[in-house]
Amino acid sequence: VYCDQTTDGGGWTVFQRRQDGSEDFYRGWADYKSGFGNLTGEFWLGLDKIFALTHQTENTLRVDLMDWANNTRFAEYEEFAVMGESDLYKLAVGDYTGNAGDSMTYSNGIAFSTKDRDNDPQSSKNCVVLHKGAWWYRNCHSANLNGMYHGGGSYANKVSWYVWLGHDYSLKRTEMKTRPAGFTTA
């Protein structure tokens, strides 16, 4: 795993990173279950590993974002868990703090969907196919950090964080990371 020991006191296990478009994130269930990519570049750690990290103790989620002008924002959720595969890797997030705006609470309690496993509550459309990225889609999303990587510009199927820059702004860099709740540096 990749650990971030510098952000906000360290102790973070990074489970997702987008930074240059080198990795294809428009993938199926098996890839998202087991993980893919390069830990020093773009990657998804794997839903089974995220479940293992978050099911035995309370955890915090942090999402770090960067736009194409190198402005940065973050969102932190004091409770974070991903359920197991039998529960379709449902997302659980708690109270939000940060300066990016809250784009994850919209997906709270929602099952994970991939292009070959449509678990979103929308019966009339497949949000993964529509937005080209696996995610915890409701109708369809307020964040899509696994969408297509575009070199800036406005696209509906891109890496996005709605509350900060809108549905159509394509972000430059994202990291999703977790650590035990109440983590303190010694």
Structure, briefly:
The chain is an alpha+beta fold and 186 residues long. The protein has four helices and twelve strands.
Report mean pLDDT, rounded to a whole number: 88
The CATH class turns out to be: Alpha Beta
Our count of helices gives 4
Q: Quick one: CATH superfamily?
A: Gamma Fibrinogen, chain A, domain 1
Label the CATH architecture.
Alpha-Beta Complex
Strand content: 25-35%
Question: What is the radius of gyration?
Answer: 15 Å
Task: Give the tally of structural domains.
Answer: 1
Largest sheet at a glance?
Answer: 8 strands, antiparallel
Approximately how much helix is present in the residues? 10-25%
Q: How many individual β-strands?
A: 12
Q: Remind me, CATH topology?
A: Gamma Fibrinogen, Chain A, domain 1
Amino- and carboxy-terminal Cα gap: 22 Å
What's the shape?
A: globular
- Low confidence ranges: none
Order of helices and strands: EEHEEHEEEEEHEEHE
* Classification by helices and strands: alpha+beta
